[in-house]
Each structure stands twice: as structure tokens, then as C-alpha cells.
Write a structure and sequence with these properties.
Blueprint lengths: L5 E5 L3 H12 L3 E6 L10 E3 L8 E3 L5 E2 L3 H9 L6 E3 L10 E4 L2 E4 L4 H11 L7 H17 L2 H18 L9 E2 L5 E2 L1 H7 L1 H5 L3 H13 L4 E4 L4 H9 L5 E3 L2 E7 L4 E7 L2 E7 L1 E4 L3 H4 L3 E3 L3 H9 L2 E2 L1 E8 L3 H4 L6 E5 L3 E4 L11 E9 H8 L3 H15 L9 E8 L10 E2 L6 H12 L5 E3 L11 H15 L9 H4 L3
Parallel strand pairs: 1-2, 1-16, 2-12, 13-17, 16-25
Antiparallel strand pairs: 3-4, 5-11, 6-11, 7-8, 9-10, 13-14, 14-15, 18-24, 19-22, 19-23, 20-21, 21-22
Helix pairs in contact: 1-16, 3-4, 4-5
Length: 482
């Protein structure tokens, strides 16, 4: 057997937990240092109570694209397959609401208003009705998902670039709805992948993100995403030490010095190997010694988007009486997206409404508010769409999390919008590149940023790097790409 390595992992998010699990499978000795009081990182299931039947909301990761094979592989290995269910997302329920210049309209009735809005902004004429519907629904999704600083540029990209690329293509097979006024964007881009590859880097990344976020094939873990975290932690033999905040790293030729805050004191630990999985938004705040200039540059420059969620525990799922069977509404304003999670557990305990989910600049506006003001603003804005929220006793509790202001994250996820494929790969490679015996993982080191898949992908890669010089037999790491 290969010699046993001793590896210290910084961060108990999904990347750190997966790496620890795989390293132990290979026979190595692992410990995890986590600065906060909880494990899971940006997998964060909040429960309105302490028992299994308590209502819950996902304040972090809440969905899994069906093509994210690494994530689904771990769910299978950890015996959680039976918990997988469909995640209903934006534009999946025709009864949900969509904000327009004419006010809130049901999604099933939104096409006429949205087409008029799109035509009013469009320079020139000469487009077929099907092309207008294509541009209309792509713009509608962009308005619902993209942060404020991207929305205007996205319309320009669609109107000036994409509409030209689809000219001459028969779009009628992708028209949907009783009146053929909806457009199947997923089917279209699957049938014509060259349209995406012909687009600019910024537009290509945008299309990729919106197709993922509005996919009909998204999945969830019934009972909460934190089941994945707990199942991984239960299988790790080495210690997971919460409350051990790393404040400095010094890279040397044959070891790494790790400075750890313990109360009012800083303790320095000499480590044979270190795997750092914390976000670069945190890492750049640490004292870093012995790093190459290239590494320091990428640590400084990786960009993170904010994400803010606000959830109400309601006395009942009033939206069901309104004909909404899950999915999400686009509310516009500062709130942006409102989701209707399935009711799990005891219905007498209430139902959770994910009242606001924002990203980027929108998330910073909401996240920068004092929590009490944040909750009041969201209640006021969402009640314009759902006045039932103002009924006495309807809102029993409120919780929110602003990842951009969160001490242990300082961001909701890495963004590479605006970069072409070559620039994205260059950043990924530099982020993942080891510094002697200091290795790196986390979604910032992956090709799939802002998803659990990226964190897991990076952990698998880091394990390979750490054990590169060790004799290997077919083990856990290899099986994820079967």
C-alpha cells in the first residue's frame, strides 16, 4: 500500500467533506478545520424547529441539474437516491405570476404583454413572429435571473446578436402553449448548439446559466440538502474541528504553517499537506506568505456574486388556493424571484415561502439592509402580489441570509460572466494550481462555478493532485467519471 499522508483540510463545505472522504478511502489521515460553528458551507438548510417534521427552507444550494453526474454519484453512494424529487423552478408553473409593465400577470397570459414590451425596445423591424417570441422569452428569463448590472446588456446581446443568428431557422417546432405563444428555449438550444458556440463569451455564459436555472430536469433532496452534508460527515473518521478559524498560511518547501485563532491567541500548526477549500473571497483576507505572484493575483481577482434569500414561515400554503402548484414567480423590484417549495412534514407546522431570492447587485441592496428592515421590505413588496401575507397570523416567522455579507462566505458563488472559454479555463487552472504542498479546491477551482457540482469536481481533482506521486489502484476517485 502507498505511504499514508497526513492532510489538513481548511473548510468543512462540500468540497472539504468530499476531499476528506476520498482521501480516507485511499488510506490517508485527514483532519478538517472549520472556522464557523457549523459544517456544510453554502449548503445551508434552515429548519423552523428542532425535530424532523419541522418546516425548512434552503438558504443555500437548493437544486441539482440532472446532468451533474458527480453530485448525483455521491447522492447514490450515500444512499439518498430515494430522496431525489423534481425541483419546480421559474417558468415551470403557468399559474405563477410574472411582473410586466402592465403589472402582475399569470405566466400563461404573459406572452402578449411581454411581446409588446420586447417590440417597443427593439430597433428596426423585419423579424418573424417566431423570432420575436424567441427574443421575448429569452429576455424575460434574463430579466428574472440576471443581476441589475447585466440586464440592459443582455437585451442588447439578444436583439443585436442572437436574433441575427436564428434568422432562417424554422422555429415553429419550439412554439408551446395553447396559443403557441411560449417558446421552448431548452429544446431549441439542444437542437442548435452552434447558436450558443457562435455567441460572444458573455452571452454564452448567460445562456448556460439560464438554461440550468430554468431546466425542467432540476432535482432536489426531499427532507433537505443538509442530508448530503450529514451523510458525508458521518463517513469521515478524522476530526472535524469547528470554531478553528485559520487566519494565516505560510508555504514552505516541505510543509505549510497554518495560523489558527483560538480565543485571543494565535496558534501555529505545522502541516505536511494542506488542502484549502475556503472561498478566495475569504482567503485573500488571510496573511499569506510564500505564495507565487500568479497565485496571489488569481486569489485577489476571482469575482464573487452576492446572493440573498428571505423566507417566510406561513400558517398555510395559501398559494395553492390561488392555483399555484410550486415553481416560482418573477416579482421584479428589489425582491426579484419568489419560490413555492413543497410542503413537507406536518402541515399544521406551516408552509415555507421563499419570498425573495436575489443575486448580484440586487442581492447587495437587500442584503445590505438591517434584517428587520430587509424582512419588512420583502413583506411589503411580495404582498402586492400575494396580499394573503398580510392576513393576521399568516406570517409566523422570518429568516434570511445575505451571503455577500456573510462572514464565512463573502459571496454567493463565483461568476465568470463576460469571459470567453479560454479566459474561464485560464482562471480555473490558476485557481486550482498547488503551491508546493498547499492544494486548493472549491467551486472557484472548477469549470462549474456556483453549483455543488463544481465544489465536488474540484475536490476530486485536488485528491488526484495530492496523491499524484502515490502508487494507486482503482478506488473511489475514479468511479465518479464512469
Amino acid at each position: 500500500m502507498a505511504s499514508q499522508l497526513r492532510i489538513t483540510i481548511i473548510g468543512a463545505g462540500v468540497a472539504g467533506l468530499v476531499a476528506a472522504y476520498e482521501l480516507e478511502q485511499l488510506g490517508h489521515q485527514v483532519e478538517i478545520l472549520e472556522g464557523s460553528s457549523r459544517i456544510g458551507g453554502r449548503i445551508y438548510t434552515h429548519r423552523f424547529g428542532s425535530d424532523a417534521s419541522a418546516p425548512f427552507v434552503e438558504l443555500g444550494a437548493m437544486r441539482i441539474p440532472s446532468h451533474h453526474r458527480n453530485t448525483l454519484s455521491y447522492i447514490h453512494q450515500l444512499g439518498l437516491d430515494h430522496k431525489l424529487e423534481t425541483f419546480k423552478t421559474l417558468f415551470s408553473d403557468a399559474a405563477a405570476y410574472h411582473f410586466t409593465d402592465a403589472g402582475f400577470v399569470r405566466l400563461r397570459h404573459a406572452a402578449q404583454v411581454l411581446v409588446e414590451e420586447f417590440r417597443a425596445r427593439l430597433a428596426g423591424d423585419g423579424y418573424r413572429d417566431e423570432e420575436i417570441l424567441f427574443g421575448t422569452w429569452l429576455t424575460a428569463i434574463g430579466n428574472a435571473i440576471a443581476p441589475a448590472n447585466f440586464r440592459d446588456s443582455i437585451f442588447e446581446d439578444i436583439s443585436l446578436e442572437l436574433l441575427k443568428l436564428v434568422k432562417g431557422i424554422d422555429l415553429t417546432p419550439f412554439l408551446r402553449g395553447d396559443h403557441k405563444d411560449r417558446f421552448d428555449l431548452h429544446g431549441f438550444f439542444a437542437a442548435y448548439p452552434h447558436i450558443r458556440s457562435s455567441s460572444s463569451g458573455r452571452l454564452n455564459r448567460f445562456i448556460d446559466d439560464i438554461l440550468n436555472e430554468t431546466s425542467p430536469d432540476l432535482l432536489r433532496l426531499a427532507g433537505g440538502m443538509d442530508q448530503l452534508v450529514r451523510a458525508l460527515a458521518e463517513r469521515i473518521r478524522g476530526p472535524i474541528r469547528c470554531g478553528h478559524e485559520v487566519v494565516g498560511l505560510a508555504v514552505r518547501d516541505h510543509d505549510v504553517l497554518v495560523d489558527i485563532r483560538q480565543g485571543d491567541h494565535i496558534v501555529t500548526k505545522r502541516c505536511d499537506y494542506v488542502l484549502c477549500t475556503i472561498p478566495f473571497s475569504l482567503l485573500r483576507r488571510l496573511r499569506l506568505c510564500g505564495f507565487s505572484e500568479e497565485k496571489l493575483a488569481v486569489i485577489r481577482n476571482v469575482q464573487y456574486w452576492s446572493a440573498t434569500k428571505v423566507a417566510f414561515l406561513c400558517a398555510e400554503p395559501f398559494w395553492v388556493r390561488d392555483g399555484i402548484d410550486g415553481g416560482a414567480s418573477f416579482i421584479g423590484g428589489r425582491v426579484r424571484q419568489t419560490y413555492y417549495p413543497p410542503v413537507e412534514g406536518d402541515p399544521d407546522r406551516g408552509a415555507v415561502l421563499l419570498a425573495s431570492y436575489t443575486m448580484g447587485d440586487d442581492a447587495d441592496v437587500i442584503g445590505g439592509m438591517d434584517p428587520s428592515r430587509r424582512h419588512a421590505v420583502v413583506l411589503h413588496e411580495v404582498s402586492r402580489m400575494h396580499p394573503e401575507l398580510l392576513a393576521p397570523g399568516m406570517v409566523r416567522d422570518v429568516v434570511s441570509l445575505a451571503w455577500g455579507q456573510h462572514r464565512w462566505s463573502c459571496g454567493g458563488g463565483v461568476t465568470r460572466w463576460g469571459k470567453d472559454a479560454a479566459a474561464c479555463e485560464e482562471e480555473r487552472a490558476l485557481a486550482a494550481r498547488p503551491e508546493k504542498r498547499l492544494f486548493f479546491a472549491g467551486e472557484h477551482c472548477s469549470s462549474t462555478t456556483a453549483w455543488m457540482e463544481g465544489a465536488i469536481e474540484s475536490a476530486i481533482h485536488a485528491v488526484r493532485e495530492i496523491t499524484r506521486d502515490e502508487p494507486r489502484t482503482p478506488v473511489a476517485v475514479a468511479r465518479h467519471h464512469m
